[in-house]
Amino acid sequence: MSRRMRTYFYAVLGAIGGLFGWQVSDRLGLSFASNLYLSEAIVGALVGLCIGLFIGITEGLLTRNLVQAARSGLFSGMLGLIAGAIGLPLGEFLFQFVGAGIPGRALGWGVFGLLIGLAEGVVGKSQMWKGMLGGLIGGALGGALLEYVHTLLKDPLVGKATGLVLLGASVGAFISLIVVLLSRAWLEVTSGKLKGAEFILDKFMRAGGPAIAIGSSALKSEIVFPDPDISPQHAMLTGDGKSFTLKDMSMSGTFINGKKIERTQLSNGQKIRMGNTEMVYHEKR
To answer: Residue 281: which of 191, 199, 212 has the closest Cα?
Structure first.
């Protein structure tokens, strides 16, 4: 999926997570304890779990990597649970004692979004600070919309449902948008079963950082193509801080602009072919 459509799907999955969060908290009861902050922590944890889970699985679903979807969804969901348990009581505290009103609650949801963005940065193919920045902006904006809609609509349940959908969509959209806008290197798939997909490589660009494997096995590679002519671990990308070196590790070969290579430094616009899959390497200086 293209980087622009990626943001759209992150927003949609985040919105679905918000809707699920509303359903779960509504069915279990919106008040769990006599203590306001304990009740808010439990509700926030349930909402955070749902939004974090759905945002976490997005990247894996887009690239048809079910192993990544399950792993990142679980991690993001657990961190979302913690984020909600912290963010919602924090917003309530600022609202009650500091008199910060909607901005105070928005700040609490901003902390919530920041932690979900952290989870996405850890398990995704982006740098953590980008996910955290996007989550902070999305959480604060979505939190403000949630509180505004909640007070605007007469039916409290409809207001809460609409607000949580907007919150989830905002967090998901801004996590993806910031990563996309600030990305420095990515692979665009131009043929094969994942045609149109784009893999952002920034997280692996720094010198001395981890290499990234490309292949057909979700257990052996970080970038996975459902192509039988691609080896389980077909090639390896290694960053030097400015660009990437591509090393072939297969029997069938890796081709750059039609020429078979063993190891080469990539430059912007080069065409890469592995098996029946072709892609273009993009790099911004």
So the answer is: 199
